[in-house]
Amino acid sequence: MNRLGLSTGAIIGIVVAVIVIIAAVVAVVYLYKPSTTQATAPGFVIPMSDFTPQNVYSSSFAQTFCSKVGNVTITVWNTYSTSENKAFNTSLTSFEQLYPCIHVEVTYGVSIATSNFISAAKAGQAPIVYRDTSDDSGKLFAAGLLLNLSEYLLPSVFEQYLPTAAQNFYLNTPSAHGYYGLPDNINYIVMFYNKQYITSPPNTTDQLINMCLQVNSTYHVWCIAYGVGSEWGYRFAAWFAGFGGQIFGPNNMPQLNSSAMVNALEFWYNLTYGLHINAPDMNPSLEGQLFTSNETAIIFDGPWDLGTYFKALGCNLGAAPLPVVSQTGLHASPLIGSTGWVIASPQASGATPQQLEAALVFILYMTGPQADLNLWNYAHDIPANVQAYNQAVSQLKAGQLSPSCLNDIMEGIFAQAQYGQKFPNIPAMAYYWPAFHQYATAYFANQTTAQAAAQGMEQYMLQQMAQSGG
């Protein structure tokens, strides 16, 4: 049994049922079978049906690819964290050994969701391959800057990823329709806590407050480090949902001007400036510094930073779902999103058909079962590939993670999935981030009221939607 009162098997069973309903998993056999269908994309020499996760791991396919396509170079922008890069580099080494004809030029340390890609794309100098969040790359796809993978890969390819993750990279709008990326993980935030200060995580916000008051008075450290006023609404979306709100309502119209937004903002303002249990003037970097130096008990973050926290705290690190909001009885429900690999359109990158073929092979490989399992083993990212996901679940059920306390930590991370919310994968979501950032910052700087902030957020989104025709 764990701290939630559930056995490991029960938690995994719940998580599997919530994240994905899989009728059956077909065993993957890495044998390249030449396609009997010779349909190829314009300028391609490899049939469309031969681009599958199974084939790209096959030495016979690799040999055929190299003999037909020849030497080719692709440019890649890498957005992984330090621990994720250990997995990526392992996968990259094996990829280049299998495909000596594909030279991969990697730019490391690129930030996710920046304007750099758009600027490069407008100049025709975007990287051929880019790793991005599903929502940001959806914006790029809607702008015509990414390849429509539905036109290059068979539908069966997208079925080899968790449905939630695959759908995160699917857009259906008048201007863009299809899959635009292949996912490499499922991600969301959880509550990380330091067992030096908190032995059992709070299940409700009332428990959170009482526990934090005790932590502050006993240990004289900040209980929570969460900079609401400095973020862009990604983590706050969970609390907004916990207070009964949703970002979009009918017809995908924003619904930020609500009592839920007001109450959620005031809740965190009170924890920060009223009860003094949340550290003020925080940003993600400062939050991490406080947590890794044992100067705060709780932080809200995703499994992508697990390696950093575990290195600092070791088995004193705990993870659990966000608490139930006592005022509403609803769970704080984080956005269930994904990151993954996308390919720039030829107009954005100047790629030749053969470079696009190599790019397809690359992203299929990097989201295939072995590469995804590398991400799990090195960084404990939750795999998006079905086969890798099932292997990760099997390891967790058997308590095979080392050191053994990692099993308990990952239980808490997996348990959060049953309380998540679907990521709004629509172009208008791009306006939520600056809307929240502008008005939440003003509210926490005492420049406006919570009511005015909620109204301003929604008005900003509506104005941006009207200007873009959406």
TrEMBL record:
GO terms for biological process: maltodextrin transmembrane transport; maltose transport. Gene3D superfamilies: Periplasmic binding protein-like II (3.40.190.10). Keywords: Membrane, Signal, Transmembrane, Transmembrane helix, Transport. The chain crosses the membrane at residues 12-32. Belongs to the bacterial solute-binding protein 1 family. InterPro entries: SBP. It comes from Vulcanisaeta moutnovskia (strain 768-28). It comes from the Archaea. This is Sugar-binding periplasmic protein. The keyword Transport applies. GO terms for cellular component: ATP-binding cassette (ABC) transporter complex, substrate-binding subunit-containing. GO terms for molecular function: maltose binding. It holds the Pfam family SBP_bac_8.
